[in-house]
Design brief:
Elements: H1 2-12, H2 21-24, E1 30-36, E2 39-45, E3 55-60, E4 63-70, E5 87-94, E6 105-109, E7 112-118
Antiparallel strand pairs: 1-2, 2-7, 3-4, 4-5, 6-7
Length: 137
C-alpha cells in the first residue's frame, strides 16, 4: 500500500493528497447532538485527555467550536499501525438553534465531553419606528 501511495506522490507531487484529506479524514472529535424541550446536549468523544484544560470549547450563535490536543506520549517505538487519532484537533459543529451564552454546563467523564446548552428563546421584540414621509401626488 505504501509503495502505491509513494508512486502517486512522485507522479502527482506531494500535495496530491491534500485535496482529498478532508474527504478521507474522519470527523474528529465525533459528536452526538440531542435535544428536548429547551435543552441541547452535545456529547463529544475525546479519549486520551489527561487534563480537560487541553480542550477549548467556544459557542457563537449557531456554532460550537472545539479544539484541543491529544498526546499518547509513547517514546522509543516506531509506528507500525496508527488508528487512534492523536495530535491537535479542531472542529466546528452547527447547532440546531441559537443557544444562551449565560447557561452552559460541561463535564469530561470516561473520554466523553458532556455539554449541556439551552435554547435562546428570547427574541428581540422591540419594535423599530419607521418614519413615513408625506408624498406628493
Amino acid at each position: 500500500m505504501h509503495d502505491w501511495k509513494d508512486n502517486m506522490e512522485r507522479f502527482f507531487g506531494q500535495s496530491f493528497w491534500d485535496d482529498f484529506e478532508s474527504t478521507l479524514k474522519p470527523n474528529f472529535p465525533q459528536v452526538n447532538i440531542l435535544r428536548k424541550d429547551y435543552e441541547i446536549l452535545c456529547v463529544f468523544n475525546i479519549p486520551g485527555i489527561n487534563h480537560i484544560k487541553q480542550v477549548d470549547c467556544q459557542i457563537k450563535d449557531y456554532s460550537l467550536f472545539i479544539k484541543g490536543q491529544i498526546n499518547l506520549n509513547v517514546k522509543g517505538y516506531e509506528v507500525v499501525q496508527e488508528e487512534i487519532i492523536q495530535g491537535s484537533f479542531e472542529r466546528t459543529v452547527e447547532l440546531p438553534c441559537k443557544v444562551r451564552q449565560d447557561k452552559i454546563s460541561a463535564r469530561y467523564e470516561h473520554g466523553l465531553v458532556w455539554l449541556k446548552l439551552y435554547k435562546d428563546v428570547h427574541k428581540d421584540e422591540r419594535g423599530r419606528s419607521i418614519n413615513i414621509q408625506q408624498g406628493k401626488k
